[in-house]
Design brief:
The complex is a heterohexamer, with two copies of chain A (219 residues), one copy of chain B (272 residues), one copy of chain C (325 residues) and two copies of chain D (288 residues). Chain A is built from six helices and no strands. By secondary structure, chain A is an all-alpha fold. Chain A has a single domain (3-208), classed as Phosphate transport system protein phou homolog 2, domain 2 (Methane Monooxygenase Hydroxylase, Chain G, domain 1), CATH 1.20.58.220. Chain A is elongated and about 65 Å long. Chain B is mostly helical. Chain B has a single domain, classed as MetI-like fold, CATH 1.10.3720.10. The longest helix of chain B has 37 residues, at 2-38. Chain C is an all-alpha fold and 325 residues long. Chain C has helices spanning 2-9, 12-15, 26-56, 59-65, 68-71, 85-116, 122-134, 137-164, 179-204, 207-215, 220-248, 251-256, 274-281, 288-324; strands at residues 75-76, 81-82. In chain C, helix 9 (179-204) crosses helix 11. Chain D has a six-stranded mixed sheet with strand order 6-7-8-3-9-10, sandwiched between helices. A four-stranded antiparallel sheet of chain D has the order 2-1-4-5, with helices on one face. In chain D, a hairpin with a 2-residue loop joins strand 9 and strand 10. Chain D is 37% helix and 23% strand. Classes of the chains: A mainly alpha (219), B mainly alpha (272), C mainly alpha (325), D alpha/beta (288). At the B-C interface, helix 1, helix 3, helix 4, helix 5 and helix 6 of B face helix 3, helix 6, helix 7, helix 8 and helix 9 of C. The structure holds adenosine-5'-triphosphate (2 copies), magnesium ion (2 copies) and phosphate ion.
């Protein structure tokens, strides 16, 4: 077996693990929000440490692979992708933690109104993230392209909920606090979806050597 | 056990070396001891006395050897080096293989056979022994040594050196003469010197080519004396004084040959 | 200079080169090739002429005796009977004796020189050993006559006779001169040849071969065996070269072998070799048949050395080929 | 395609598999911790002289067992010299002189009563130019076994040969022609044969002096992979001129300069954050 | 000159340029906000393209350096740092663009009240970013450490303004829209300061080989 | 310290300097665009035979002037053979036969009336093992100048020698001992001397066949830096076994396999995203 192979496999395992943990975090915060289960969201905050550790590990491993194994071509792009993706996943997890922190406040106040679009947005975001990671691990460019397209749905939902929330807050100033917190929550979800998109862009770079970030590529 | 065998073998090897070195010492000491006792100025300046009379020298043989060896070198060096260049630079075809083989054969031919050959092609037609015949025989003996030394030396010059010179825009003949021969010069020179040292001591081929001469001659179509032949004939003679002279001649010949050998070793070998 | 660079860049230069001296042209290269080739051809002719001329000049003997020349052991110029067998026998036996003595000694010296000898002493010892080869054969002959022969007669041969006299090989009486003595002189003469070539081949074995064996836990002698195995082709070549030299050696042998055209099993008996009969009798050959018979012996000598030489070549080539593939 | 080739589709993203993956991870970490291995080779204040000339200056170094250590440094800095002190191969150099200690499993190999011949069996060595003996492939491997009398029967001998060749990843390529001359093998195969020959006498430490520098990249790669595998069972020490090679195969790297050991550390530390300025200058090519 | 040197210099130039452009963007949005100058903030949005292009260039260059030059030790850490920092700077610029977009809405509405703390927050953030880049370019670890400490100021200001805004919005529901937008603005500023901190962490990695991200290192 | 050493403190972060920096950037880009250089060496459907054995199969390739091109590929794939067709060095191999064309500045060098001697001057060559002539340093450089009668006077000759040595970054090291034997130089210096000697006869193209494979890493580094500088004035083509070397020094890379040109492209493309599976396999070490 090529010497580098073991390292790449390790990298992949770690990215995968990090992805799974983060995906769990997203799922849990969304659930915590909908079911007003603060305990769940506190879990997410504690669990984040593991993800941070993993990011550092992946950073170090990828750097070591770079300098000790001199990867080229596909190996190189995979390593670079891991280096970038680890940072992205960590940020996604951070956003989940932030949501969890907002949930502390939100769940302390009376419920605003039954959430309809918010769970939907959460689900789509979680799915996008899951798919982006799936695309990364399996090198599935099609899935990556499909996932990138779904970002628009999240953006639309964001604006929908945003307007709705503003309306509620304007109508009833007592909801301003909860509303503002929720505003941040949806902002965080929106960012998560963006990051899923970034991961997909990295997948396309990894598989096709094309950089599509910042280029209005028509898929 | 393994260690005992080890010790034993290496002791035997050291003893062999001691043996060989003592034989050398024995020979050299004998030659030197006898030679130093026998040698005097007359030896270098006087002609031999008639049979039975003591005294006299070997100036005829000394001059004869110098003449014939020089002549032989002059004949054989250009031929040998030219042929060696052909063998190393162009020598890929059938002709080269044959010539290379024949040169090896020639090197292995006993020198006395060469003497006979020259006898049949020079002495018989000329109907007399001559210095030129002797020189020719010595030249033929020299050729394979010089050819092989030169070819080997030229071959050792890396192919890339030739190509490097070619790549500077030099024609091939200049590359060979200016770069390749230059690179190999010290080995070529030492090959030539060793060959000269060798023919200086050759006796057998001169026995029936140059024969010998009691007088000092410098013309090339007459029989000519030479040190080795003179040594031989004096050695097998029954006269003590001739034995003494033979030791003196051997001493000077050996000194000359050893000097060439040693200087080649110290001036050319160490450089490499 | 820049102009030059410009000039050489113009494209038609390849097709129409600057006016050049003939010496830079391809025809100069051709001429050079032709010149060296003709010199090589000359060597070719020389060897052909050597053979042809000798055959022509031994025609009388060749036609008179035919093959029986080789197998007849009578050499009687007075009766105009010529057979070369004693000389062939003397030549072969003295040379083989020399080899038997020289091989172990040479290998011992070579191993000592490459394995044991302090590094600084190596070139000195090797030079000394090689000096033995530089000493002219007539000097050996002289030394043989005045030192070795009396020594053999007085010390060695009596001991051999006493101890091993029951073997036909060492049957007396001994005069000091003879096969064994000439074999010993020849051995001294070929030891440096075999040693030098063996040392050369041993030295050209990479030191890592020896170190590899040592690193596997071999003793020094076991490692040396591996080195010898690597150098075997060169060593065999050296031995055969030594044999060639011994066969053709004239003067030293002539002076100590006794010059008697008889075949005797004993190494202590006087004998005669092909080279020495030519050396001794050539100038005394009073009539053409005698002369031609001597030249025929030269041809025989030539053939024998040729065969040895060719054998050596084949052997060395075969071994080195096996190494390459 | 890169990713698909890696047989990783099974590690899907379903959460239920988290634990499994975590276990994998933990086992790896355990392994890494287990790297706190015992010291196999240790140099204590080692000085080395060629006649008057000092080639090594008070080297102190501890090499753990079952690891690959690379010696790097500019030409003439003493890498080979130090390597060869480890199996006393320098003993055969007349003018060489050693001061200080080399401990192999805590035994000073320069102690007076050490059996050098057996020491060299325990510390195998592979050279820059491959050194197959001019014998058959089989006999090459057998040589060391025979002189050390390691096999009791013909069958055992054959088994040992097979095992050595397998360990050196050469068995499949030569099993049908064990009686062919070893010289008929390609350069890379010859080198692996030499490794197999070394393995056959069951050494503890394997020294390699630029084992790939005479090989083409593909053969080099094979040897490098082999070295990485050998780590499982042997302590491997390798001299290399190729820093990339050091980085690829080694766990520890020692940097030598002018006969001194400048730095010894885990390879990744040396290559990402060397402590010494000189090391940094060397590996970033700022030298000379 | 070492072959890699030219590439590293080029990388550094590009990072520097990207930093300068981004710093300008921050300065301009803060100014646009305070001076209610929408035109200025629109500039920032258009100028962002250049930064995106630079990010791609640096990514490519750093990747090429990785594979073509095999950097080690300091060179390696510098290259890795560039790779990471380019991404970070781009995100900072993105946040500036986001602020600019919020400004569109805010400046369309009547002013909420005279900003006091907001410009202060903007200035500190800008300074932090400037200093982090300065630390990067000059390899100044002390500056990096100092800058990381200033992040607390920004966080404090964030909470101060946040509470203030909530109060205003609760008091006067007509300000909910402007208020929410401003909430996002300060969130963006707060993130920028975080990113400046990240850059400083990279500087410390680059200079000392220590990873302090996610480790509660006491400086 | 890394950064401080780089003389970059002056590029501070003040905005007023933005324009200046931008200009730097633009000039760089212009330079990069100027890389659309004219083709200097071109192979058209080139086949090469050693006797019966075909060593190259219809090679088509265009190498731009003033660039460094690296030939990589496994041993025996025909890199050296192809390199040597470019200055007809293969002519001296008796059994060699060429089909197709090599165009140097659009002139077919295999046309019947081509002056091979002059062609070889225009296409210089540097070899794996350095090839100093056994003459003084000065005479080594002078040899080619004299043979080609490139200098008209003694002073001009001396100037040319100095210039060549300076271009090869050797002048400072040897200016005080121009009359010493070239063989007394170190390996790396000898190699630079050979490069200087080649530069002295004013070639257009310089071929190098593994010019560093016999050198230690520091000497290698120097030669590599030199190669990168030579690109300013010459078209350099280099065969190398060392992929890292190819990646460091070359603008273009050609990958050969079994006598075929598999891929030719900009080096960074070859190393980050090769088009051909075979190339990827080779450079990631998946071969064989
Ligand atoms: N047998 C010897 N006798 C004397 N000096 C020696 C001997 N072998 C090596 N040296 C010297 O000892 C020093 C260290 O040599 P060594 O071979 O250990 O260096 P190295 O680091 O292995 O170099 P390289 O990378 O070129 O193999 C050098 O200066 C060398 O000249
Ligand atoms: N003079 C020659 N005669 C016959 N065949 C040759 C000759 N030179 C090379 N070859 C063969 O031509 C093929 C290409 O050889 P070439 O030397 O060009 O390979 P290469 O790519 O340079 O390999 P390396 O990396 O080992 O130098 C090889 O199969 C080789 O065996
Ligand atoms: Mg070494
Ligand atoms: Mg080649
Ligand atoms: O992670 P962000 O703050 O850049 O969305």
């Amino acid at each position: 077996m090529r010497i580098i192979e073991a390292d790449l496999n390790k990298l992949k395992e770690k990215i995968n693990l990090m992805g799974i943990l983060t995906q769990d975090a997203i799922e849990q915060v969304v659930k915590a929000l909908v079911e007003r289960n603060t305990e769940l969201s506190e879990n997410v905050i504690t669990a984040d440490d593991k993800i941070d550790v993993l990011e550092n590990e992946i950073d170090k491993l990828a750097t070591d692979v770079m300098v000790l194994r001199q990867p080229a071509a596909g190996d190189l792009r995979f390593t670079i992708t891991c280096l970038h993706t680890a940072g992205i996943i960590e940020r996604v997890a951070d956003h989940a933690v932030n949501i969890a922190k907002h949930i502390r406040v939100i769940n302390n106040e009376p419920p605003l109104k039954p959430y309809v679009d918010l769970p939907k947005m959460g689900t789509i975001t979680r799915e996008m993230f899951r798919d982006s990671l799936q695309a990364l691990i399996t090198g599935d460019v099609n899935l990556a392209r499909l996932t990138i397209r779904r970002d628009d749905q999240v953006d639309d939902l964001f604006h929908l909920i945003y307007d709705e929330l503003l309306e509620v807050m304007q109508k009833d100033p007592t909801t301003v606090k909860r509303g503002s917190e929720l505003l941040f929550v949806i902002k965080h979800l929106e960012r998560m979806a963006d990051y899923a998109t970034n991961i997909c862009e990295m997948v396309i770079y990894m598989m096709e050597g094309k950089v599509i970030k910042h280029t209005q590529e028509a898929f | 056990m393994r260690k005992l065998i080890d010790k034993f073998v290496f002791t035997i090897c050291s003893l062999s070396t001691v043996l060989v070195l003592s034989i050398l010492a024995l020979i050299i000491i004998y030659i030197f001891a006898n030679g130093v006792l026998a040698i005097n100025l007359d030896f270098f300046t006087k002609l031999p006395k008639p049979v039975g009379e003591d005294g006299g020298g070997m100036v005829n043989a000394i001059v004869g050897s110098i003449i014939m060896v020089t002549l032989a070198a002059l004949i054989s060096i250009p031929i040998s080096i030219g042929a060696a260049i052909y063998l190393s630079e162009f020598g890929k075809g059938f002709l080269a293989t044959i010539v290379r083989f024949l040169v090896d054969v020639l090197a292995g031919v006993p020198s006395i056979v060469i003497g006979i050959f020259v006898y049949t092609i020079v002495v018989l037609p000329m109907k007399r022994f001559s210095a030129i015949a002797g020189a020719l025989a010595l030249a033929i003996i020299m050729i394979p040594t010089v050819v092989r030394a030169t070819e080997e030396a030229l071959r050792l010059v890396p192919q890339t050196l030739r190509e490097a010179a070619l790549a500077l825009g030099a024609p091939y003949w200049r590359v060979v003469l200016e770069i390749v021969v230059l690179s190999a010069r010290s080995s070529i020179i030492s090959g030539v010197l060793l060959a000269i040292a060798r023919i200086a001591g050759e006796t057998a081929p001169l026995l029936f080519t140059a024969l010998g001469n009691r007088f000092l001659v410098t013309v090339l179509d007459r029989p000519m004396a030479s040190l080795p032949v003179q040594i031989y004939s004096y050695a097998v003679s029954p006269y003590d004084d001739w034995h003494r002279q033979a030791w003196a001649a051997t001493f000077s010949l050996v000194i000359f040959i050893l000097l060439i050998n040693l200087s080649v070793r110290f001036f050319f070998r160490t450089k490499e | 200079m820049e102009n030059l660079q410009e000039a050489t860049k113009t494209d038609n230069l390849i097709l129409a080169p600057r006016k050049k001296r003939w010496l830079m042209s391809p025809s100069a290269d051709k001429a050079f090739h032709t010149l060296t080739k003709s010199l090589a051809l000359f060597l070719f002719t020389l060897v052909i002429a050597l053979v042809a001329s000798m055959i022509y000049n031994s025609r009388l003997s060749l036609s008179r005796f035919g093959l029986s020349f080789v197998f007849s052991s009578t050499w009687d110029p007075v009766k105009e009977l010529f057979g070369a067998l004693p000389f062939v026998y003397g030549t072969l036996v003295s040379s083989i004796t020399a080899l038997i003595i020289a091989i172990p000694i040479s290998l011992g010296v070579a191993i000592f020189l490459t394995e044991e000898c302090p590094y600084k002493l190596r070139p000195i010892v090797l030079t000394l050993v090689e000096l033995l080869a530089a000493i002219p054969s007539v000097a050996y002959g002289l030394w043989g006559i005045f030192v070795l022969v009396p020594f053999m007669r007085n010390y060695i041969n009596p001991v051999l006779e006493k101890g091993l006299g029951f073997l036909p090989l060492f049957k007396g009486p001994s005069y000091g001169i003879g096969l064994l003595t000439s074999g010993m002189i020849l051995a001294v003469m070929i030891v440096p040849i075999i040693t030098a070539i063996s040392v050369n081949s041993l030295n050209s074995v990479l030191p890592s071969q020896r170190e590899a064996a040592l690193a596997l836990g071999a003793t020094r002698w076991e490692a040396t065996q591996i080195v010898l195995l690597n150098a075997r082709s060169g060593i065999i070549g050296g031995i055969i070269l030594g044999l060639g030299r011994a066969l053709g050696e004239t003067m030293a042998v002539t002076m100590v072998i006794g010059n008697r055209p008889e075949i005797s099993l004993s190494l202590l008996a006087p004998s005669y070799t092909m080279a020495s009969v030519i050396a001794n009798e050539f100038t005394e050959a009073t009539y053409d048949l005698y002369l031609h018979a001597l030249i025929e012996i030269a041809i025989l000598l030539f053939i024998i050395t040729f065969i040895v030489q060719a054998f050596a070549q084949l052997l060395i080539r075969q071994i080195s080929k096996g190494k390459k593939s | 395609m890169l990713v698909k080739n890696r047989n990783m589709e099974n590690t899907s993203l379903e959460s239920k598999e988290v634990k499994e993956v975590k276990e994998v991870k933990e086992s790896k970490e355990n392994k890494e911790e287990a790297k706190n291995l015992k010291v196999e080779v240790e140099a204590e204040n080692l000085n080395f002289f060629y006649g008057e000339k000092q080639a090594l200056y008070s080297i102190n170094l501890k090499i753990p067992e079952k690891s690959v250590t690379a010696f790097i440094g500019p030409s003439g800095c003493g890498k080979s010299t130090f390597l060869r002190t480890l199996n006393r191969m320098n003993d055969i150099i007349v003018s060489a002189r050693v001061e200080g200690k080399i401990l192999l499993n805590n035994q000073n190999i320069y102690a007076p009563n050490v059996d050098v011949v057996d020491l060299r069996r325990r510390v195998g060595m592979v050279f820059q130019k491959s050194t197959p003996f001019p014998k058959s492939i089989f006999d090459n491997i057998v040589y060391g076994i025979k002189i050390n009398k390691l096999a009791n029967s013909r069958t055992e001998l054959q088994q040992m040969v097979e095992q050595a060749l397998k360990q050196a990843a050469l068995w499949d390529e030569v099993k049908d022609r064990l009686n062919d001359s070893a010289l008929a093998l390609s350069g890379g195969q010859q080198q692996r044969l030499c490794i197999a020959r070394t393995l056959a006498v069951m050494p503890e430490v394997i020294l390699m002096d630029e084992p790939c520098s005479a090989l083409d990249p593909i053969a080099t790669e094979k040897i490098e992979e082999l070295i990485v595998e050998l780590r499982e069972k042997y302590t491997v020490i390798i001299v290399t001129h190729n820093m990339q090679q050091a980085s690829r195969v080694s766990d520890y790297t020692a940097f030598f300069l002018l006969g001194q050991l400048i730095e010894f550390d885990e390879t990744e530390k040396i290559f990402t954050y060397p402590k010494e300025k000189k090391t940094e200058d060397y590996i970033t090519g700022r030298f000379g």
